[in-house]
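Fold it.
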Amino acid sequence: MSSLVSTLHLQLAAFALGTVGWILCTTSMGIVEWRVWHVDNTTVISSGIAWVGIWKVCFISYLHISPGYKEQFCHKFSGYDSSIPHEIYAAQGLLLIAMFMGLLGLTATIFALRNVYMRITHKTLITRFFLLGGFFYIFAGLCVLIPVSWNFYSVMHNQSIPFPPSSYMPSSPVVQEAGAAIPIGIAAVIFLLLSGTFSLSYRFLVTANTITKS
């Protein structure tokens, strides 16, 4: 049990990194600024800037084009919008999976840490839960990495989106840039992968400690 306690600082770091990574993952999923479109037609899009997210597209307008909105208009994507590119639908599904996997990773790590602090001497069980948490963290990080990279590629190549007429959006911008969600997603990937690496290295550190003491 002493070998478990002596390497506990690494798992505390993994838990902290995993928590931050999970928060960043959920944050990037919730905000609309995945792509920032600059358009030349300001008749409807008054500011000339629109924000394209994975759930909806929003822009500022001084026209009353949406009930309940005085200045900001948002068009939510539906499963029937065949014009929405694959990377947006992929981001929706993968980020939901990442959020769930990250939560499972945190739960497994909390359970293992609880057993160590309570001096429960099921060494194999504790190690398995730390490893399980590590796999969940890494899987979550990869699920975030795919949509972030895919959408960033689309931004860099200024790819267009044939929005439906109800969105009041042009099919292509003059220029577009990466929004805040992409760097937040990149940070989430880094934290989650580091957390998973620390969790998976736990078994080797415990084995090394046991060999050294013997």
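The helical segments are 2-6, 8-30, 86-117, 123-156, 181-200, 202-213.
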